[in-house]
Design a protein that fits this description.
This is ChrR-like cupin domain-containing protein. It comes from Kutzneria kofuensis. This protein has about 120 residues and is an all-beta fold. The chain has one domain: Jelly Rolls, CATH 2.60.120.10. It is about 0% helix and about 40% strand.
Length: about 120
């Protein structure tokens, strides 16, 4: 399907040691810490590794204004709406506005999240 969407460009980075990036609390989600690997020009998170502590639970259905791809690397994540548990190796690809969640993790989980925003058309 052809579109006229433009994607906002993220940082240009050569290989670097991800272990050198510190874990920081996610200011928007209790129980979640993150390693931000790249940012968009406006400073928004582009790519990150998110680590959910055991027992972390979100409330309400989630919607974003960006494309999001998520790969579960470790642990498991239970979707409370779908009543389905996803484990390491499961992948999601979401368009802006796609409803998902809420979620709960009993044992904790780690995921790679890649986000792409659309350029402002105005």
């Amino acid at each position: 399907m052809a579109t006229d969407w433009e994607v906002v460009v993220k940082d240009e980075l050569e290989f670097f040691d991800v272990e050198a990036v510190p874990w920081r609390p996610d200011p928007a989600a209790a129980g979640v810490s993150e390693r931000v690997l790249s940012r968009e020009a406006d400073g928004a998170v582009g790519t990150r590794i998110a680590r959910w502590a055991p027992g972390t639970e979100t409330s309400g259905v989630i919607r974003h204004d960006y494309f999001e791809e998520v790969l579960l690397l470790e642990g498991s994540l239970h979707d409370l709406t779908l009543d389905q548990t996803f484990r390491a190796g499961h992948f999601a690809s979401r368009r802006p506005g796609m409803p998902h969640g809420p979620y709960r993790t009993v044992d904790g989980c780690t995921m790679l999240e890649i986000r792409h925003r659309l350029a402002d058309a105005s």
